[in-house]
Amino acid sequence: MDVQKLANENNKIIISSYRKNNKDVAVVIDEFGKVVYSRDKTGSSPIEKLVHPLHFKLGKYNVGYILCMEILKGYRDFNTDIQLDESPTFLI
Length: 92
Known about the structure:
It is built from two helices and five strands. It is α+β, with helices and mostly antiparallel strands. The protein has one domain (3-77). Strands 1-2-3 form a three-stranded antiparallel β-sheet. A two-stranded antiparallel sheet has the order 4-5.
């Protein structure tokens, strides 16, 4: 089943990832099945700079996610004081 169709049929936001052109890509699909954000994930090479974790407003939610390399490299490269909502409803 198409993920965008799944989000729309279940009225759920999906935050996930997929592999494209030999890269991992993070994606956010809104509850209507529209891709509202996608970007390459931070690579694992030590010299690669951190792609900052995503944060944005989606409807009534302040949404954000941190991926594995963002956690590992975040200590080195990431500083923020942005407050995110703690209990949104997501289908992951």
